[in-house]
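Hi F.,

I've been meaning to write this up properly since the lab meeting, where we talked about keeping a consistent format for the predictions we share between groups. The idea is simple: the sequence comes first, exactly as it goes in, then the structure tokens exactly as they come out, then a line or two of notes. No screenshots and no reformatting. I'm using this chain as the first example so we have something concrete to point to.
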Amino acid sequence: MSSHDDLRAIALSEFARAGYGATSLQRIAEVAGLSKSSVLYHFASKEALLEAGISPALDRMEVILDSIEGAPLNDQTRRAFITDFVDFLLAYRLEVHLFINQARSLEDVPVIDRANLIVVRLASYFHSNVDSPVDRLRFGIALGGAAYVLATEENFGPETEPLADIRPALITVLTELLAPVPVRPAAIQELI
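Output, unedited:
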């Protein structure tokens, strides 16, 4: 791994652990065993480090969206999306953690603005491909809930659950949550 990649990984870890606002370039340099000027040689600013840390995740999510947009939401598209989304969440947990937990405090930061546009794009796809408010809510709760659960290390960190168990479990749960429900059970209909 290059110094550039090392710095990006260290910054991402520190931003997720302590928060973007509370993490200084000096702290990143200390953890990397470098001087602050060495960090600035690779990245012009802390914001540039944030962008370098989050951009690969955003690029991947855009590829996933490109693969479903323009396609009808059917069983095949749904299954492929769920698998891609789960793999995305597992590969980019720190990035998702940063976005979920710190996006509000990072308003007007270009890379966070880009992430917000991707979320809007994802929501728009599902909004235009499902007919009812119930189905729209199911997609939002399922996808947002999965992202939140995986972004909180204490629930499903490497120490608590092996990745080999998390991935199939998450695919199963999302598939069950997002399967079309043609008729509401009578017990639910009575509550409405």
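Notes:
The mean pLDDT is 87.
DSSP finds eleven helices and no strands in the chain.

If this format works for you, I'll send the rest the same way.

G.
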